[in-house]
User: What shape does this take?
Amino acid sequence: MEKRFIYADNAATTAVSEEVLNAMLPHFRTAYGNASSIYKLGRDAQRDVEEARDKVAKAIGAEPKEIFFTSCGSESDNWAIKGIAETMAKKGKKHIVTSVFEHHAVLHTCEYLAKHGFEITYVPVSDKGLVDPEDVKNAIREDTALVTIMYANNEIGTIQPIEEIAAVCHEKNVIFHTDAVQAVGHVEIDVKKQGIDMLSLSGHKIHAQKGIGVLYVRKGITLPNLIHGGAQERNKRAGTENVPAIVGLGVAIEAATRNISEKAAVIIPRRNRLIDGILQLPYTRLNGDREKRLPGNINISIEGIEGESLLLMLDQYGICASSGSACTSGSLDPSHVLLSIGLKHEVAHGSLRLSIEDDVTDEDVDYILEVVPKVVERLRSMSPVWEKMMNGEEVK
Amino acid sequence: MMYSEKVLDHFSNPRNVGEIENADGVGEIGNAKCGDIMKMYLKIDNGIITDAKFKTFGCGAAIATSSMATELIKGKSIDDALKLTNDAVVEALDGLPAVKIHCSVLAEQAVRSALSDYYTKQGIDPLPIVGEIKEPEE
Ligand SMILES: Cc1ncc(COP(=O)(O)O)c(C=O)c1O
Ligand code: FES
Assistant: This one.
């Protein structure tokens, strides 16, 4: 077996595409103007920023003036949640509804607000990793300021019933925000049709660079200014525009949303082959609904082994994968997402997430399906937990 | 997170993986927080550890420290093995990231737990010799 290099961690980040890089490069050395400057070099930069804004707006069915560039998905989430919290608190509304398995950019923001007088309701998710709109409806109160539910989960890839959730929010006159960082470019999004009031997205998940994000804010919603200073982003977020990154994001989102279904048609069969292949191993389970999931997401728990050592061994075979979320790798706790769908601690510890795109070929899939069982068998052979399981002993 | 070359080497080619049949001392220790578990097997002749093997369910550092700990005590006297500290294991591995220090404590305690079992099997109260076995806290 010849060693390959397979990047199967696109949910963590993606490579900047050639198309994006080529669009960005002139903005470093030649078209480097400040978008606020009066001369042509500045006006050109301004034009390019606005062109990118148009592209982002078009990609999600919004209007350009509803698009605000930020420095990342986390910033967008923070701004949306803390901003609405601040506005609504003045009206005596200090309650927020979210779900138990949000990204930390949402969860930790909510926890912060909880320390500052807000009440947070965390709706549960089913064992398939889906939020029930009925639960959201029941959680909404008179004093609910905001509902924020992610579009697609970053670990198990489950796609939430966004339109239904938006509908229950509007029925009760509550603003609805969604973290769509993992969804953009993989599922069709139309904020107007789906009734999304606010949406966060991030460039580095769709082949733009790291450190660029967007917050879509439906017109009519007033959000407090995030950064005070210059007049950039319609006075709301000061700071000289990161023109290369913004231009890159425009090109990236256009490309990512151009042929969503064609890409899915290529990726889904490969994803399914990976899922079915890995599930052939005994004591494995697929995490998250099989149908309502992102085309490239595979998340499987493999009992008797631990995630980090699995990843390190896969790395030796040139396979880049993840176990839970990259952001939590510094912590010892198992993923809150896997616990939220009812996994026991020790099962959650042994999970494997692969997030593939169409560059992962059928041969790559064969290779992964050859390597994973080998590595799992090796780790299980040295695992006292596996030994106990095989002896029929209770594993704590 | 950065693992040293030594850690990666002991992870990829762990020394002394496996079990010892009729071991003279077997110890198992776990960390409730991260869920990792180490099992250590010792063969002891005349107060000398003639063989040591391990099985570990855990992170890369847990496997590497198990491997290094068995290397460090093989051929040593029980007294020397009792002096093995997690710091010595970390040093022998050219360091560990801060969040992974507890993995080396697991290795240290696994050795002690196996020695404790050895004394118990000999009909000797291990407590005054080995001391208490602590499940490492994070
Ligand atoms: C669902 C979700 N939300 C937010 C983020 C944060 O995005 P960023 O890394 O751009 O801050 C990520 C990715 O890390 C994510 O997967
Ligand atoms: S993370 Fe707990 S032993 Fe390594």
Residues 40-60 of chain A form the longest helix (21 residues).
